[in-house]
Fold this protein.
Amino acid sequence: MTPAPVPPVPVPAPDSVPVSVPHNGPLVTEDDIAAVTEALRSGWLATGPRTAALEAAFAERFHPLHASAVSSGTAGLTLALRGAGLGDNGATVAVPTYGCSALLDAVLVAGCTPLVVDVTERTLGIDPGRLDPAHPIDAVIAVHTHGHPADLDALRPKTALLVEDCCQSLGGRDERGRPLGAIGDASVFSFYATKVIAAGEGGMLLQRDPAARDHVRGYQDPGAREVYAPRFNHRLSDPAAALALSQFRRLDEIAAHRRAVAARYTAALPPHVAPPPGLAPGQVPYRYCLRAAGRAQQQRWIGHLRAAGIAADPLIPARHLLHRQLGLEPREYPVAERVVDSTVSVPLFAALTEEQADRVAEALTGLPD
């Protein structure tokens, strides 16, 4: 029997209460501004030396993987599949249903077939137990959701190509101390405005196979094509690369700030509220997501925080789950269906000030039952 829907609890309208703490915000420093200004004054507006320097910085941190700067995380995922020879052949690519629709976009644009899979309760990453070993999978895109590492060791034997989606986990490590992004066959990072480092747009693709990296070069440099084939422009401009590189150089500082804020929030939680599942040492918390007991409590918590001027967010509505986007049966994805009615994300971002973090922590202490 399908349970009766829980009537929504009134939540203050977004414009009815002044917001003193936004849910997100980029941190742009004077060093960032100087780096972009220098790029603009240099005359290099297209891909150039700063893009190459950004690739070199990623390649050094994630040695021995090969780095290619791209126009977005979506472009990176698409090229990760094409670089491995999976383009335009209908290859099966498993993706978690709790995630951005860019996952579907990347798989379909690459000419592959998405296999949408439910997620684990703890990390919201793809559930390896739901991959049937009797049905071959050409690739898995393992998203480190909210910065929590996906179970890569369990996924590894189930696929020929393991792609790490690190768009929310740059700078983090798994429980074995391995850098996220250096474990799979390829990994992708995003520099979108709300990511760990923010250049507005852009991203980075890392690949273990040098031949795969050479194949991707054909999508970045039209002159590198031996034989003509249609290509999208996936290049990153030098001014955007300059901003990303400036922020990448202080990645450890950004990561430490995120960890400190997450610890501050956890310490402030009342006894009846559990900290976000999946948080562990070495991670870089991208979102600080509490789990309510259900929709009614979720709405009470969001209302409480918004009344305090804090932009709390449920993140993904049920209609945006990837299985729903494809018209698949919701009952086959029970974990994701529950999570969308329980998630409460509170502000956690690089530009969050001490005063703002204190305001959030104070509001968290009063979360209702």
Confidence is low (pLDDT under 50) at residues 1-12.
